[in-house]
Amino acid sequence: MAVLDAGGHIKVLKREDGSSLLRPEIAIGKAWGVLGMGFGGRELFRRAAKMPAFFNALSDLSGGRMVPVPGGVLIRSVSGEILGSVGISGDTSENDEICAVYGIDAAGFKADTGD
């Protein structure tokens, strides 16, 4: 699980014992991708499916940090300002997203999944 601030800096990175090697990088990529584009992982996923060449270019421009799938969720203030993002990896993308939304909501912020 990764939490980034609005500038894309890692605020929290947690890895469960026994999880596979790339889980932290995947979580960061999910969080970084939604933050970089300004919309949630579901919308990122839809756009990547429609415009693969553009997303290949984005991946190159970002040094490979774009992971355009659900599980990356924007953290918004009550007024809608982007405060940061959460990325989770470890289960299906849908279940990762559910966990991210739960944490964001529990902290009193608005979760933006892209739907």
Strand-residue fraction?
Answer: 15-25%
Largest sheet: 5 strands, antiparallel
Spatial strand order of the main sheet: 2-1-4-3-5
Low-pLDDT parts are: none
Give structural notes.
The protein is built from four helices and five strands, in the order ββαααββαβ. The longest helix has 15 residues, at 23-37. Strands 2-1-4-3-5 form a five-stranded antiparallel sheet. It is an alpha+beta fold.
Detail the topology: elements first, then pairings.
Blueprint: E1 2-5, E2 10-13, H1 23-37, H2 41-50, H3 52-61, E3 72-76, E4 82-87, H4 93-106, E5 110-112
Antiparallel strand pairs: 1-2, 1-4, 3-4, 3-5
Brief synopsis:
By secondary structure, this protein is of the alpha+beta class. Helices cover 43% and strands 19% of the residues.
Descriptive tags:
single chain, 115 residues, 4 helices
